[in-house]
Write a structure and sequence with these properties.
Layout (H helix, E strand, L loop, with lengths): L1 H13 L12 E3 L5 E5 L10 E4 L4 E4 L5 E2 L9 E6 L6 E5 L8 E5 L7 E10 L22 E7 L10 E8 L4 H5 L14 E4 L2 E5 L4 E7 L10 E7 L15 E9 L1
Parallel strand pairs: 2-8
Antiparallel strand pairs: 1-8, 2-5, 3-4, 3-6, 6-7, 9-16, 10-15, 11-14, 11-16, 12-13, 12-15
Amino acid sequence: MKNLLSLILLIFLILPAGAATFQGGVYEQGSGQANRIIDKQTGEGIGGADIKLPKQNYATKTDQEGFFELDTQINGPSIMSVQKENYKPFTMTVNDNTFSAPIVVGIEKSNTSDIGLDANMYHLGDDSYSDLSANAGEFSMQAIGPFYTKRFIMKKLDFSKPIYLVIGSIIGIDTAMARSMGQNQIPNAFASPPEVYFNGNKISEIQLNGDGQKIKLPSNLIRKNQVNEITIKTGRNIMQTAYIDYDDIEFMNLIIEN
């Protein structure tokens, strides 16, 4: 029962919903006259925030009051990032309906213990995928291979509190669960889930596409004041046995939160 409740909570957190609150920030529709980035705590507009949609190769900035416009076409799910100095990088999956009404996105100030691992977008896999694959039409770059690794030192953390790896956004996952949730349209095949490793130990599997997925880092595996390593491995097409067919996925924005 505990595992079932955890699964329900995970699905609730990462699947889109209208006029909802998203992990990492505030997301509201119809709440103003124009799109705006605000400080989550104060509600004040944030000027000079960078807004990017890598798939569209599009970038813009907010004005002094935090307002912005998107002068680009969005077809299907795409990853949008918001970055501003002294704030946590924020990403969310948007689509052609997201901006049908003005939205307000609240971002949080960085804590001294937060570690911004990587704000770039990466494509894992082998560049061989079906048009029916989850978000296949939204992939924006070539694959770097089947896995990604990042090394970092953990210093200014409170090791008495939980420490999490946060994946800002991830798309392209073709697991059986993703198919059952309507996230891809492949009828006769599915992939194993992407795996997350911490210091050589598997700590999580990612079953669904979504935003703000948190993975707790086991305290017994943390190397205090030493080099630690995060590795993300994409899944494989389970129905293909003649050769290894990697699942093509893209993710963006990795953060360590304490």
